Structures are given as structure tokens and as C-alpha cells.
Amino acid sequence: MFAKEQYQLLDFGDGRRLERFGEFILDRPSVAAEGVPKQQAELWSSAHATYVRRSANEGAWQSANQMPLSWKIQHENCDLELKLTDFGHVGVFPEQSGNWDWMTRQLKSTDDTLKVLNLFAYTGGATLTGAAHGAEVVHVDSAQNSVLWARRNTESSGLTDASIRWITEDSRKFATRELKRGNKYHGVVMDPPSYGHGPKGEVWKIQQDLDELLDLCMQLTAHDRRFILISCHTTGYLPHDLEQKLRQALGSGHGGTFESGGLAIRSADGRQLPCGIAVRWTKKND
Predict the structure, then answer these.
(1) What does the pLDDT read at residue 286?
(2) Torsions phi, psi for 101 (to 5 deg)
């Protein structure tokens, strides 16, 4: 998880969340915070920037003072560059830190050098985690700006010489080509969106396309599968649903254990803000 000086959820309620990223406090929308009251009303005036949504797909940040173009926080010893984007994101999903910690445990549990495929890899939190613990990582995202952002994080974290392949491509198309090439992986990490586009206009819809992608990933890891991690933020998906999809893709005799549940961030007063779901599969130790 993040150290408190790096990230903290200060409060949430009335459809918004108040978070401190390093030295800056941000106020932004949160669907999961609708229908619950704020608990620390006096804190909200301390926000350095507030995201105001203008429509379902756009909005703008407002701040009384000039915000920096970018700043950094750390998870473990890895730097994560943050900046205010037009979509209300900042370059990191804090709820993923628990998944990165889980991934670290998998990599530390073996002396083998594992090859990890990170799909929908965004700004590279899982890529940094893998590289920092000796894995060979293939980082795939359809957005060139996200791949460049992840590369800056890698350089800032002192991982320039780590074994990372950077791929700007549709995840399904890349997985299909890797299978044809005969490439193999020990682990897969993915955080698929509900809907998206590849760099050449390829359409991704999680309801229609996730099963095919999971099947490709199972084939890519069939020789020596060690772990699978899937998270998502799609409305209507429950942890059980995601686990069943992975079970179906793995088939019988997978020889592993499952964990599934909701992702959440604990606020300063101990409440939990739901932030998606995840399922994890780990090979049983011999």
C-alpha cells in the first residue's frame, strides 16, 4: 500500500473524494461516494485543485493557485509522475497498490526470472513493480501518451536498464501475434476498460471481448503459469462474475488458488471507498 505521506484518502461523500497526493490535495468526482455524507467538511476547503465535470466525458480542473505541470509520489521505491488530466485522472489509480503488493509477493516467492505480460498497462504501476523485482515485463497499452508516461516513470525510478518491452498496440491483437510467434509468459496482469479503442481504431468492449483475451492469455501461459491478476471498474461486474470468467478460461485441473473481491481505498477515518473489483490466481506450490 502507499505510505501516508505519499497518498491518503482524506474524506469522501456527496459524490466526491478528497485525496492527498504527496503535497497536493485534490477534490474530484466519485460515483462510489454518491449517497453518503462527507465526514470531514472542514477539510474540503484545503483542496489545491477541484475537478468540475462539464459533461459525461469532459471537465476541467479549477485551482486558486498555479498547480505544477507534474509532480511525483512513490510506491515502495518506484516514482510515479502525476499531473492533472482533462479527464479528471492524475496518472495513478491508488486502489491498485494492493495488487502491486500482491504481485511483489508472487515475484519474491521464486528464484526464477518470470516473464510478465501487462495489458492495458496505463502509466506502468505493475510494470514498475515487476521490473523492480527482477521480472521481464512486456508493457502493452493502446495509448502512446500512456506508454511514454510509463517510460518516464521507469527512468525516474532508476529502472532504465530493466528488461521491459514497450508496446503501443491493441491488447488482443498483440496477444494474438505473441501466440503465433511462440512467445510464452509466466504471469499476466490486466486492467481492461469497459470500452476503448486501439491505436488503429480497434474497438474493445469488455462484455464482448474479455473471454477471447483471457483464452489467448491462458495459451500464452500454458507452459508454466504462475499467476494471473485481473481488475476492472465496469459497472455491473461482480467479483464472482470475474472469477467465473477466469475459471472458465483456465479450465479444470488448473492447479491453483483464487482470491476475488472488491478493490477499495480506506479513508483517514477508516471508511472504505469501493473502487472496482479484482480476481487473482496463483499456482499452488509443489
Answers:
(1) 60
(2) -65, -40
Contacts 24+ apart (CB under 8 A), 19-23: 19/94, 21/71, 21/73, 21/82, 21/90, 21/92, 22/71, 22/72, 22/73, 22/82, 23/71
pTM: 0.95
Q: What is the pLDDT of residues 211-242, one digit of tens each?
A: 999 999 999 999 999 999 999 999 888 999 99
pLDDT of 22: 98
Report how far residue 31's alpha carbon sits from residue 24's, in angstroms, rounded to the nearest whole number: 22
pLDDT single digits (tens) 118-145 = 999 999 999 999 999 999 999 999 999 9
State the Cα angle at 39 between 44 and 9, rounded to 5°: 65
Residue 285 is classified by DSSP as: P
CA torsion through residues 265, 269, 271, 274, sign:
negative
Q: Which are the contacts of 181, defined by CB distance < 8 A and separation ≥ 6? A: none
Which domains occur in the chain, in start order?
A: 7-69 (2.60.40.1180), 94-283 (3.40.50.150)
Residue 255 above 90 pLDDT? no
Residues belonging to the chain? 286
Q: Where are the alpha helices (DSSP H) in the chain?
A: 97-108, 125-132, 144-156, 171-181, 206-220, 239-250
